[in-house]
Amino acid sequence: MNVFAQAQRAYSPAHAPTRTARSIEYDVIARITYRMKTALKNKDYPSLAGALHENNKLWMAFAIDVANPENLLPDDLRARIVYLADFTRQHTHKVLQKKETAVPLIEINAAIMRGLKQEGVEK
Fold it and tell me: Does 9 reside within a domain?
């Protein structure tokens, strides 16, 4: 290791900056939404099915999280998240049957990302 590399290593942060739960949620939603958009644009049904599966798992996790009595979100917001999770599950089923398009699911995720970003997520 040369002197320059040693100096860089010595003065670099010891660990990555701490991330907030909101920033992690934003990144996960953004990644899944990007996969859905790309698969839809490329008419790649197997990739779309995989992205839809991940999106469904994400929304199920959100629903489970807000169902916890210790969750501090307001009751009306918790109810709306449960409703969106249920809608996502039902609509995903229709998309997989090729009866509907994934666009509403992408739009829901985009709206959630906007909300997370307004509340302090920096990208």
Answer: no
**Residue 70's domain spans which residues?**
20-118
Segment 25-82, tens digit of pLDDT: 999 999 999 999 999 999 999 999 999 999 999 999 999 999 999 999 999 999 999 9
CA–CA dist 58, 75 (Å, integer): 20
CA angle 51, 49, 80 (to 5 degrees): 60
Burial, 97: exposed, middle or buried (Cβ in 10 Å; 0-12, 13-18, 19+)?
exposed
Query: What's the token pair of residue 31?
Result: 């990644």
4 domain-assigned: no
Q: Is residue 12 part of a domain?
A: no
pLDDT of residue 17: 63
Residue 6 forms part of a structural domain = no
Alpha-carbon distance 123 to 84, whole Å? 25
pTM: 0.80
